[in-house]
Amino acid sequence: MAPSGHAPVTLEGDLVTPQGCLQGRLEIEHGRIVALAGEPIDPARAGEGGRPILLPGFVDTHVHGGGGRDTMEGGDAIQAIARRHARHGTTALLATTMTAPVEQIEQALRAIGPVCRERGTQAARVVGVHLEGPYINPDRLGAQPAHAALATLGEVLRLHALAPIKVLTLAPEVPGHLALIGPLREAGIRVQVGHSNGSYDDGVAALRAGAAGFTHLFNAMSALHHREPGMVGAALAHAQHAELIPDLLHVHAGAIRAALRCIPGLFCVTDSTAAAGMPDGEYRLGEHRVQKCLGGVRLPDGTLAGSALTMDRALRNLVQRLGLPLHEAARRVSTVAAQYLGLADRGRLAPGAWADVVVMDAGLQLRRVFVEGEEIDVVADA
């Protein structure tokens, strides 16, 4: 176990809690929140007079890389990625794979497994794996390499034994996939519909079979048309949960607003690549080489290929570009995803929860980050 903060720490400021905003203080001991107290304030007044804003640490269920490293590298890449994202306020994440031959996925999971069991210093907690591929539709690869494959329960459970798969992206219209959703759910794996060319009816059938949500809503799935609603229509009409990438490149602000009105448990992810937290240039994404330029990450043909987004930027986009109230934006980058993953002691500022805390100023710039009580060296991102 990585060193947690054992010395008592008291943080004062405006606290964003599940019950609303409080002006007061929060106390940390042995890596946990042991007490908080304060007077209720209007969330719109958070940060007034230079008071720090305390939010629950960000929870990201879709992380391919960061700091120049890619999850498919194996080795020490996962620790490096977890450290980079912690410096931007992410306190818990799912290491996310790319579509690849199964031998390469196994290699990546062998490296991820030990990191899930023991958090490194100055790093976010890696709570498991998001297996994004290879069980996708080859006609909806997006930026995934062309190694789509049919899923079998035995193969998934063998991978699950190497590192805990918390989320699995699957195209339900592929023959045999719909029948796997129930057994995967029973194994504790949340199935998300994604990289799918299925119809509206395919999406509804997947939800009825036990699918938990949708992977990067709107992207790499059949689109909404008023006579052919597609996977997007199934999600907007019926889903309780879905991921969304709020970099304002993957999804237009108007579509984000529509999704927020339709899907109660919509939560934000970065879909970040090795380019996250790095300057413009060329980076790895699975077997691809991608280019970061003008805030986006693309394949040579111009296809968006993951993102360079970090969760502190995601929060600012929600508040400053989309106009969400701060406490609502905090739910979408933290609390909802933690609840979705069944992490009752993360994603909230409450007694007994892990001391995963982000401290920001009134401009929502990072000032301090704590992961399980350990203070992290932060990165200011203008």
Automatic annotation (TrEMBL):
SUPFAM superfamilies: Composite domain of metallo-dependent hydrolases (SSF51338), Metallo-dependent hydrolases (SSF51556). It is an enzyme of class 3 (hydrolase). GO terms for molecular function: N-acetylglucosamine-6-phosphate deacetylase activity. Its EC number is 3.5.1.25. Pfam families: Amidohydro_1 (PF01979). InterPro entries: Amidohydro-rel, GlcNAc_6-P_deAcase, Metal-dep_hydrolase_composite, Metal_Hydrolase. Residues 53-368 form the Amidohydrolase-related domain. Keywords: Carbohydrate metabolism, Hydrolase, Metal-binding. NCBIfam families: nagA (TIGR00221). Belongs to the metallo-dependent hydrolases superfamily. NagA family. This is N-acetylglucosamine-6-phosphate deacetylase. It comes from Pelomonas caseinilytica.
